[in-house]
């Protein structure tokens, strides 16, 4: 799976699970999920669950880092690395 496809899937999942009032394709890859899209601590937990369900991976507590959730691009890189590791 290419990183672009991961980013597209992440954008759809983020928009859906967080009830964002913007189209998934309007989410920019390098904009801050926290500052620009209002992701907070509760939203982060929802995203972890969504990622685990969408991509069939597990994010153990010890691997959780806020830096992975900074942008869609960072999140796609993290998810991609988890998928190739499993």
Describe this entry's structure for a reader.
- The chain is mainly α.
- It has helices at 3-17, 41-55, 72-85.
- The model has no long low-confidence stretch (mean pLDDT 93).
- The protein has one domain (3-85): Orthogonal Bundle (Non-ribosomal Peptide Synthetase Peptidyl Carrier Protein, Chain A).
* CATH superfamily label: ACP-like
What's the pLDDT, averaged over the residues?
93
Structural class: mainly alpha
CATH class: Mainly Alpha
Search tags:
mainly alpha; 86 residues; globular
Can you give me a brief rundown of this structure?
The protein is mainly α and 86 residues long. The chain contains three helices and no strands.
What is the element layout, followed by pairings?
Blueprint: H1 3-17, H2 41-55, H3 72-85
